[in-house]
Amino acid sequence: MRLGARIVGDLRKVLAEEVRAGERAAMTAIRAETEQVKAELRRQVTTAFSGNARGIANAWRSMIFPRSGQSLRPAGLVFTKVPKIIDAFERGALIRPADHHRHHQLHPHLRLGRGVAAEQRDGDRLS
Q: Measured between alpha carbons, how far is 114 from 107 in angstroms, rounded to an integer?
C-alpha cells in the first residue's frame, strides 16, 4: 500500500493565517479575563461599602499588552488609581476624614446652609 500527500496552496500563507488566528484568540481571551478580574474587583469594593463607593470601585483600571496589534503572548494588567485607599481597605485600617472635614463636626455653629449660618437660620444671633 502506498500513501501520498501533497500540499495544496502556499504553505507559508496557510501558516501565517493560522498564526494570526491564534494571535486573535489569545488577545480575545486575555482581554476577556482582564475585564472579568476588573469587574470582580469593582464588585467587591462596591459590596464592601454597601454601594456607596462607586468612585473608588471605578478607580480600577486595566491594560492589555501589546497596546496595539496582536500577539501570541499577550498580557493583561489590572491596577487601581487609588492604591493607598485600597491598601487601607485590605488591611482593615480606620479611614478618617481630613481635619478640614471634621471642622464642621467640631464647630457646628460654623456650618453654613443656603448662604446663612445655622444659628441665623434658626433665629439665633451670632456674636
A: 18
